[in-house]
């Protein structure tokens, strides 16, 4: 299948831009998610260094050279590894680069993921991110709540108030939330300003449709994680057929669909490969006609029926 990779190489504003609410931070809508840059050790995913560190550095440098100025990361990717590679590849950082990190989890020695939401754990996580990224202040920090896929009903006043306190101290500039419900956002807004929401959403999993509209009305960015399906990349006959009809790849269609879905959606597709990065960035020049969008709606209906 034809990839639109070469058409995009020197485009400097992939996907248009969006200013994070209450900030002076304009970010290009086509960003990059750095989680895939960490390694894997047997069953332990997002763990340890990658096999090809120069390759990981090349991905980051090419992303930024191609106009990406929004990189999503966390110090629990690796742990520490992804942030250290970002620093190695890009520090001193370009003026316009916005690095968004997240806190609220820690890794067990067996690669497991645990909540880390006490006041001290949040403070330590912010300092770990500052040190490993080589920054004096973190531009945006997401508090990670919920499970891997869906929000959970749980208290979060302590970790969020701690982040707000770190913001007052100047160590954090802006705060976002991950894996939350609209109700949790409203509760959080009573504590501090929220500039972005990072939840699971893609062409097949559209549980946040209404939430995205509400956030758009408030000017809050919606940043879907697993835009390509995450650890199990999207596979669908409908997606393949649409991709063939518009002479693109299925992953490009999945990303173009998100860009067209709502103006407050910012993309952070993850990849460890320069080839896939180019393919993904090129999706920002792909326009999907209305009949194609209707075809893609069938993927979500089929996914709903399967669950
Ligand atoms: N807030 C949260 O709780 C949370 C959770 C998960 C992720 N995130 C963030 O969201 C970002 C995006 O999620 P993600 O990286 O897990 O998943 P994703 O972007 O949906 O998909 C990444 C997977 O797709 C593959 N891929 C990427 N481009 C491709 C292409 N053009 N063709 C074929 N395969 C391709 C990657 O493999 P290759 O490396 O081989 O390209 C990787 O296996 C992460 O990097 C992370 O920053 C946040």
Give a structural overview.
Mean pLDDT is 94; it is low at 1-10. The strands form three sheets. A seven-stranded parallel sheet has the order 3-4-5-8-9-10-11, covered by helices on one side. The chain has a two-stranded antiparallel ribbon with strand order 1-2. The chain has helices at residues 53-65, 81-90, 119-133, 157-168, 182-189, 209-218, 237-245, 250-261, 274-282, 290-306; strands at residues 17-19, 26-28, 32-33, 70-72, 98-103, 105-107, 113-115, 138-144, 172-178, 196-198, 221-222. The protein is globular and about 50 Å long. The two termini are 30 Å apart. It has one domain: TIM Barrel (Alpha-Beta Barrel). With 307 residues, it is an alpha/beta fold. It binds NADP nicotinamide-adenine-dinucleotide phosphate. The site of NADP nicotinamide-adenine-dinucleotide phosphate has 27 residues, from helix 9.
Report the CATH topology name.
Answer: TIM Barrel
Order of helices and strands: EEEHEHEEEHEHEHEHEHHHH
From the alpha carbons, calculate the radius of gyration and give it in angstroms. Answer: 18 Å
Query: How many helices?
Result: 10
Question: Main attributes?
Answer:
single chain; alpha/beta; TIM Barrel; disordered N terminus; binds NADP nicotinamide-adenine-dinucleotide phosphate
Task: Please specify the SSE layout and strand pairing.
Blueprint: E1 17-19, E2 26-28, E3 32-33, H1 53-65, E4 70-72, H2 81-90, E5 98-103, E6 105-107, E7 113-115, H3 119-133, E8 138-144, H4 157-168, E9 172-178, H5 182-189, E10 196-198, H6 209-218, E11 221-222, H7 237-245, H8 250-261, H9 274-282, H10 290-306
Parallel strand pairs: 3-4, 4-5, 5-8, 8-9, 9-10, 10-11
Antiparallel strand pairs: 1-2, 6-7
Helix pairs in contact: 1-2, 1-9, 3-4, 7-8
